[in-house]
Write a structure and sequence with these properties.
four-stranded mixed beta sheet; Immunoglobulin-like; six-stranded mixed beta sheet; Jelly Rolls
């Protein structure tokens, strides 16, 4: 018989805690005969609830955003059914608070209510770009060149979660969302002269109705949202959790994964149960919303993810957020999820991998060439060298840091694009865009006003990106203080 190992590893029990343990995060923790003292137990549970509430905030910004967008459409525009559609017929401007829209594209939007209407038909006109997102902002299907209609339009059929009834055997692109609520976003491009007339007419070919009414479908109503006050921004106080609880209660019980359901339940949000936090918990939730929103802002504006588009520029892009599924290397991209939930509305694979000459590409920056935050009191210049790699058009839009909506700067729109009247093009074909409180001499047409004392950021969009964008050889300058 062989002998056992000569070196025996002995396991030593950890030392019991001293009577006082100091934590740099939550202060002193007191122990009595190794048990935590009553006040320490209370402190630890408060901290546990606070941490869980912060994570719920960060993990569910996408859901709160969808809920608030739907609520705003209903409250402010009367778009309270799937057969009512808001269209920004005259373009978007700062009277509507939406997360990072632009003023050049024609938008049309509504929400399906599959709990009330059951299976729902959407007759999509040709030439549309868009997508269906569920109430946690997860893409259900694309509309347009990246979708099953391939840009030709057609009939989509949205089925409620868990639906096991009959489905028409042909003639539909069938989609199966995980939630009863479904956000429908359509975009149409302007004509080369900048006109929206043809795009509006095309979008009004949209028809939405319950499958049960297919023989005699109800008419689809259109509400012109241009110039109308609309607030779709999610709250950043304790109401955030009230909205989230209302959404969880109304939605399909399996709309979200079991782990997310568990964290929600840990702070009292659970399908089938009323949300009734006591005074202690409500105070914790209010604090978590305050801190969570600041964390989301930091995660978005000073990201730790490798999002730089160029190694010698400040511009960042969507790629390494994990968008739109927020999965990478076998795990959820938590920072990417909170970043994009805070920064933007909507998830679509077509925004990550646009086909050449179609779709749209985005890059954005919060900082100038030196890495300093963009300052509304300073004057800056951006130069886009020729040729700008956009088959359709380019756009530069300025946004408010806190609302993430278009900056309300007193101009018709805080943006410039190649349709803009009088836009100056340099002799070599490049274009300079100026930002600041006052326009540089002779550059009024190329100037976007900023507001002293207010931060801002900008998104540069390329519609129909072509070579130069894809191979990274086209490089706009940083937004540079002058």
């Amino acid at each position: 018989m062989s002998e056992g190992p000569t070196d025996v590893v002995r396991i030593t029990a950890p030392e019991p805690p001293p009577s006082v343990v100091h934590s740099e995060f939550i202060g002193d923790l007191h122990f009595e005969t190794e048990y935590p003292a009553t006040e320490t137990v209370d402190k630890l549970f408060d901290q546990l609830d606070f941490q869980r509430a912060c994570q719920v905030f960060l993990r569910n910004i996408t859901a709160s955003s969808m809920y608030s967008f739907r609520h705003g459409l209903r409250r402010d525009l009367g778009v309270d059914s799937a057969s009512k559609v808001a269209i920004w017929e005259d373009g978007y401007n700062a009277t509507s608070l939406l997360l990072t829209p632009n003023s050049e594209t024609l938008y049309g939007t509504t929400y399906l209510d599959l709990a009330a209407d059951g299976p729902t038909v959407l007759e999509i006109p040709p030439g549309m770009l868009g997508f269906f997102d569920d109430m946690w902002m997860r893409e259900v299907a694309n509309i347009g060149p990246a979708g099953p209609d391939q840009g030709s339009g057609g009939r989509f059929l949205a089925l409620p979660p868990g639906y096991d009834g009959s489905v028409p055997p042909f003639g539909f692109h069938v989609i199966r969302p995980r939630t009863y609520g479904v956000w429908v976003l359509l975009r149409a491009l302007r004509d080369p002269d900048g006109s929206t007339d043809a795009a509006v007419a095309a979008m009004k070919g949209l028809s939405i109705y319950p499958l049960a009414e297919m023989d005699r479908p109800r008419p689809t109503e259109f509400v012109n949202a241009s110039g109308k006050t609309l607030d779709t921004i999610h709250p950043v106080d304790a109401r955030y959790f009230d909205d989230l609880a209302d959404l969880v209660l109304a939605e399909h019980p399996e709309a979200i994964d079991i782990e997310t359901r568990g964290v929600l339940a840990a702070i009292g949000i659970e399908h089938g149960r009323p949300f009734e936090p006591d005074e202690r918990m409500r105070g914790i939730l209010a604090e978590a919303a305050k801190v969570g929103s600041a964390m989301a802002l930091a995660t978005s504006y000073r990201t730790r993810l490798p999002l730089q588009r160029y190694n010698d520029r400040q511009w960042i892009e969507i790629g390494n957020t994990g968008y739109p599924y927020y999965e990478q290397n076998g795990h959820t991209m938590l920072d990417g999820l909170s970043l994009m939930g805070w920064f933007a509305t909507g998830s679509s694979i077509a925004m990550v991998t646009p086909p050449p000459g179609k779709g749209s590409a985005y890059m954005w920056t919060y900082t100038d060439a030196d890495g300093a935050w963009l300052d509304g009191a300073k004057t800056y210049r951006l130069t886009m060298p020729a040729p700008i790699p956009a088959a359709n058009f380019w756009s530069v839009v300025v946004y408010d840091v806190w609302t993430r909506s278009m900056l309300a700067n007193g101009q018709e729109a805080a943006s410039k694009n190649q349709y803009a009247e009088g836009i100056e093009v340099n002799d070599d074909g490049s274009v300079d865009i100026w930002f600041g409180p006052e326009p540089p001499a002779g550059m009024q047409a190329n100037w976007i006003r900023t507001i002293p004392g207010k931060g801002w950021f900008s998104i540069l969009r390329l519609y129909g990106p072509v070579e130069g964008y894809f191979d990274h050889t086209w490089k706009p300058t940083d937004i540079t203080a002058v």
